[in-house]
Amino acid sequence: MVMTMPTDEELAALGEVFDLFTRRYKLAEALGPEKPLNELDKQVLSYVARYPGCGPTDSARFLNVANTTISSATDRLVKRGLIERRRPEADRRAVALYLTAEGQDKVDRLLAMYGELHRRMLDPLSVAERRQLIGMMQKIIYHDP
Amino acid sequence: MVMTMPTDEELAALGEVFDLFTRRYKLAEALGPEKPLNELDKQVLSYVARYPGCGPTDSARFLNVANTTISSATDRLVKRGLIERRRPEADRRAVALYLTAEGQDKVDRLLAMYGELHRRMLDPLSVAERRQLIGMMQKIIYHDP
DNA sequence: GAAGATACACCGAACTTCGTACTATTCAAG
DNA sequence: CTTGAATAGTACGAAGTTCGGTGTATCTTC
Fold first, then answer.
1. How many structural domains does chain B have?
2. Is the CB of B73 under 7 A from strand C?
3. Does residue A123 have a pLDDT over 90?
4. What is the pTM of this model?
């Protein structure tokens, strides 16, 4: 009998890496000099960075939270000057969200920080392994059902 | 010049996988019939599962939150009947945390759910790739500085 | 042009986190 | 011993977060 399925212990390794990185992300942010953003707020910020002009409802669906919750998050981000609300002429009920210059800056810094963490995560791997790992990650992402 | 370092785009793949799984975890829990636990509460629960008899302060250090926050989380978990506090004779200031039978059950169900998610995550990979990926994850974990 | 659908925002209740202050116990000298 | 400092944890209250119900403005459709 050929061993085709991963054992539970092997699968657990994925969970551990995931946990490890959850804690590291959090720690890295706590260490930074700036007052750290809310978890949700960060996610909204990245969503807007990826989809400029999106509406609050889009990000609510994507992040799986109530619309009113996104409304609050948007308020906070606007108050901090990271994003702005615009009224599109096409549909004046809607709101279109955009990063401000400061918001773009914040996103850049966040991405740099994550990049650094990921780089360190890859430290114990050889160059060939790194390339393999990245390749598998891309397969996993693009397979997204 | 040999390409030894991953590019930013390659590194971003790690972040995307991470995000993808954050959302999936959340979604999977929201779908379950049971009232989902708080993020922190789940982490405390797993910590106690891994280190039975640990004190609240241990998990506070590990999870990087204030002691009082762990105290609240512990209250909630005790109230739901998932863990119990005991006074060790050795040091009667201390509290030792243990899973109840129901708590163990909850942990088992959570792990089963995560295992299933991880299994699906590995779907698009070949058997050889899976084994490689797991091996790299283990390297990353054991390298933990 | 009226009825219904859609996109949001406001409000208030319930919950979470955490700093301050407090209790109980142990440790360390003297 | 016993007294003073250190340690483990909890009670309480302030500030912040999430979300359901409700309200307003704007399309859409017939």
1. 1
2. yes
3. no
4. 0.91
